[in-house]
Specification:
By secondary structure, the protein is an alpha/beta fold. It folds into two domains: 195 residues, 2-enoyl-CoA Hydratase, Chain A, domain 1; 48 residues, Lyase 2-enoyl-coa Hydratase, Chain  A, domain 2, CATH 1.10.12.10. The protein is 49% helix and 17% strand. The longest helix has 18 residues. The two termini are 32 Å apart. Bound molecules: ligand T3D. The site of ligand T3D has 25 residues, from helix 2, helix 3 and strand 6.
Length: 258
């Protein structure tokens, strides 16, 4: 993989966008590599959680704007339907948690990638920027759906309409960023969070992600039913039995994923 690194260590897959000279902006090959990485991770039983980060000083500057000027570039709506939308859906539907290690600016669709992570840890100096309006576009790749749900309608409108840069510290105050850490500790912190997630019962983690996702489009009654259904699945796992046994035996659980 030319523009992306995928490393798997101790149940944690780390994906690094690796076009630092262009601030990890997204070309067609990089988008395809990223989707392939998430697809491979979904099927890889060794992997229980994921870290997504960028090489160099940026997380991701969104669509590669030079590529957009190439004569054979797909129309915008085609590019969104064929490449960006499947990528965002793959992230949201991945039944393994994704920790975004936001190492620098996340702009345009790069901001959307950050928003599509389940947990975000940011380096001091990182920022989130819905840069779309500056080039005459609207926020896309899920930003208009994810942002209001994550920070509330008023702040989402301000960020989306003005294109103002949200600092990591302000993102933490809004609850969008779980934690801000010094840049030199970012990857270790994100991988430590991912490792903690990898220690949990994988099916419970997957079902929790599914339940949270469902809540965004459910009424209370429907969501209560979803919880009952998914809890039925979780409760039938060997890991649930192991969790109770470990509690009663006063020892750490050993979750098998069964
Ligand atoms: O297919 C479709 O188009 C549909 C999907 C659209 C989704 C989108 O993502 S649209 C939004 C696209 N992204 C942007 O508009 C952001 C563009 N970049 C910036 O505004 C700034 O670069 C940043 C605010 C992110 C960072 O600013 P700064 O001053 O720290 O860095 P810089 O000097 O602007 O950039 C450094 C280099 O990266 C520079 O290259 P050079 O001159 O050293 O050779 C710059 O051209 C390159 N770069 C940065 N962003 C992009 C990029 N190259 C291509 N595409 C980029 N998006």
């Amino acid at each position: 993989m030319a523009d992306l690194r995928l490393e798997i260590v101790d149940r944690v897959a780390t994906i690094t966008l690796d076009r630092p000279a262009a601030l990890n902006s997204l070309t067609v090959p990089l988008k395809e590599e990223l989707l392939a990485a998430f697809t491979a991770i979904a099927d890889d039983a060794r992997v229980r959680s994921v870290v997504l980060t960028g090489a160099g000083r940026a997380f991701c500057a969104g669509q590669d704007l030079r590529e957009r000027l190439e004569p054979d570039a797909a129309p915008l709506e085609v590019e969104l339907r064929e490449r960006y939308n499947p990528l965002i859906l793959a992230m949201r539907r991945l039944e393994k948690p994704i920790v975004g290690a936001i190492n620098g600016v996340a702009a345009g669709a790069g901001a959307s990638l950050a928003l599509a992570c389940d947990v975000r840890i940011a380096a001091e100096g990182a920022s989130i920027l819905l840069a779309f309006g500056r080039i005459g576009l609207i926020p896309d790749s899920g930003a208009t759906w994810l942002l209001p749900r994550l920070v509330g309608a008023a702040k989402a409108a301000e960020l989306a309409l003005t294109g103002a840069s949200l600092t990591a510290a302000d993102g933490e105050r809004l609850g969008l960023i779980a934690r801000v850490v010094p840049a030199d500790r970012l990857l270790a912190e994100a991988q430590s969070v991912a490792l903690g997630l990898a220690d949990l019962a994988p099916q419970a983690v997957a079902l929790t992600k599914r339940a949270l996702e469902a809540s965004w489009s459910s009424g209370l009654e429907e969501q209560l039913e979803t919880e009952a259904e998914l809890q039925g699945i979780a409760g039938a796992t060997a890991d649930h039995a192991e969790g109770i046994a470990a509690f009663l035996e006063k020892r750490p659980p050993r979750f098998s994923g069964e």
